[in-house]
Amino acid sequence: MIRDLSWIDPVYLVFALRWTIGLTVLALLGGAPLGLLVAAIGNTKRPAMRWLAQGYVGIVQGVPLLAWLFLFFFGFPIMGVEVPAWLAASIALSVYASGFLGEIWRGAIKSIPRTQWEASGSIGMSYAEQLRHVIIPQAVRIATPPTVGFVVQLIKNTSLASVIGFVELTREGQMTAAATLAQLPVYLMVGTLYFILCYPITVYSRTLERRLRGVR
Amino acid sequence: MAYTFNFRDVFAAKDALLDGLALTLQLTATTIVFGFIIGLGVAATAVYGPRWARRAAHAYVEVIRNTPLIVQLFIVFFGLPSIGIKLDVITVATIGLAINLAAYAAEIIRAGIESIPRSQVEAGVSLGFTRAQIFRHVVLIPALRNVYPSLMSQFILLMLATSVASQIAAPELFYAGSIIQSRTYRDFEVYTVIAIAYLVLTVCLRLLFGAVHRLAFRR
After folding, report:
1. Smallest Cβ distance to A170: which of B70, B195, B202?
2. B81 CB near a chain A CB, below 8 Å?
3. Is residue A185 in a domain?
4. Is B218's pLDDT higher than 80?
5. Between A and B, how many residue pairs show a Cβ–Cβ distance under 8 A?
6. Is residue B1 in some structural domain?
7. Does residue B3 form part of some domain?
8. Average pLDDT value for chain A
C-alpha cells in the first residue's frame, strides 16, 4: 500500500527523536562507567594492566559498530537469553562508547603532571584516592570538550541501531520512506532533525574547547 | 543451553567473503583519494577563499559532521536518480563516502594549515617564493606533517565506516556477511569472522600508515 506523504509524517519523525535520544542516554549510562574503568586501568603502573586497557580499546575501535550491533543482537540468543533490540543496541553502543571514552579519558588523566601523582602519593593516598581527589578533578576540565564532541558521534551512530530493527529516527524514516516512496524528502527531513539535535552540541563543545585554551 | 558453533558453513563461502574484502579495500582506497583531494580543496577554501566561499566551506563541513553517514548515503542513493543521474551502487557508495570523509579531512587539514605560524609564511615571502611555492613548501607539507596522525586515524575510521555502505547494498565485506548469514543462519559465526576481518584490516592499515609516515616525513 503506497500512500502520500502527509503532514503527520514529519510529526512522527520528530517523535522518533525521543528513541534516538533515549538510546544515546542509555549508551552513555553504560559506556561512561566502563570507560572510566578503562581509563583507570590504562593509567596504572603495571604494564600488563595497561596492555589490557589498550587491547580493549584497540579491539572496540578496530571493529565497525555495525558488527558490534549484530554480535550482541545474535550473541545473546545463542547463550539462551532473548534480548529485545533496544537492549542489544544499548549494550553494543555502551561497549562502543566505553572504548572511545576510555581512550579520551585515559589521555586526559595522562596529561596531568607527574608531580601531582607524587605529591598525592607522598601524603599516603591510595591509587583510587589519588584519582578521586587529585587527578580526575583536574582531568575533567581537559576531557570535557572531546567528551561532549563524542556525544555527537554517539547520537549519529545510534542511527545504525536501525539495522537490527530498533525504531529510532532513521528506522522511522525508513518505514515512512517505504510506505510513501518519497525517499528523498523523508531522508532530507531525517538528516535535518539529526542536524538540529547535533549542531548545538558541536558548538557547545567548541566553546568549551576555546574556553579551556583561553584559561591555560 | 548448549550451542554448537559451526564455522564451516561460513568458511565454505570464502569466495564471497574475499570478493567482499576486495570491494572493501577498493572503497577504502578510492574514498581516501577522492575524500582527501576534496577535503584539501575545502580546507584551502575555508582558509584562503573569499568570504562567501569560506562560509560555504564551513557550512558543508558542519552539515556533514552533524548528520549520520547512513542518512547521507540514503540521500545520495535516492537523490542522484531523482535528478536523473543513474550510477552503479559502488560508484554511489564511493561518492557518498567521499563526501563524508572530505568534511572530516577538511577540518583536520584546516587545523594543520592554521597551526603554521605566520612568521613562516613571511619568511617564505622574504625569500622571494611565489605564493604557490609558499603554499606547497611552507604551509601544506608542514601542516600535513603536523596532522598526519589525526588524518590517518580518520582514514581508519573511514575503512570501518565503509561497512555502512552494505545498507545501500554495495557488496562489500559486511554485505557479503549478511548474504552468508541469510543463507546459512549462522549469524553469530558470520559476524565473528567479519569482525575479526575488520580488526585485522585495522591493524594492517595502522602498520601501513606508520611505514608511510617514516618514508614520507623522514628528515
Report:
1. B70
2. no
3. yes
4. no
5. 102
6. no
7. no
8. 94
Assign 3-state DSSP to chain A and report helix, strand, coil percentages, each to 5. 85, 0, 15
The answer to whether A63 contacts B195, with C-beta atoms less than 8 Å apart, is: yes
Asked if pLDDT for residue B219 goes beyond 70, the answer is no
Sequential DSSP letters for B142-202: HHHHHHHHHHHHHHHHHHHHGGGGGGGT--SHHHHHHHHHHHH--HHHHHHHHHHHHHHHH
Q: Does A76 touch chain B (CB under 8 A)?
A: no
Which pTM was predicted? 0.93
B66 contacts chain A (CB < 8 A): yes
Query: What mean pLDDT, rounded, does chain B reach?
Result: 94
Confidence check: pLDDT of A214 > 80: no
Tell me: pLDDT of A79 over 90. no
Is the residue at B86 inside a domain? Answer: yes
Give chain A's domain count: 1
Domain containing residue B158: CATH number: 1.10.3720.10
Q: Which domain holds residue B114?
A: 8-216
What are the chain B neighbours of A173 within 8 Å (beta carbons)? Answer: 71, 74
pLDDT at res. B11: 85
Nearest-angstrom CA–CA distance, B139 and B111: 12
- The structural domain count of chain B equals 1
Please report whether residue A1 resides in a domain. no
- A156 and B166 within 8 Å at the Cβ level: the answer is no
How far off is chain A from B198, nearest CA to CA, in Å? 6
Show residues of chain A in contact with B207, CB under 8 Å: none
User: pLDDT per residue over A126-183, tens digit each?
Assistant: 999 999 999 999 999 999 999 999 999 999 999 999 999 999 999 999 999 999 999 9
A61 contacts B202? CB cut-off 8 A: yes
Please report the ipTM that was assigned to this predicted complex.
0.92
CATH at residue A59: 1.10.3720.10
Q: Per residue in B89-115, pLDDT tens?
A: 999 999 999 999 999 999 999 999 999
Cβ contacts of B26 within 8 Å, gap of 6 or more: B90
Q: Nearest residue on chain B to A200, judged by CA atoms? A: B66
- The beta-carbon neighbor of A156 closest among B68, B75, B199 is B68
Q: State how far the alpha carbon of A183 is from the alpha carbons of A198, B146, B160, in Å.
A: 22, 42, 26
The domain in which residue A132 lies consists of 8-215
- Tell me the C-alpha distance between B35 and A151, whole Å: 24
Residue B183 lies in a domain: yes
Which of B71, B188, B195 is closest, CB to CB, to A170? B71
CA distance B185 to A208: 48
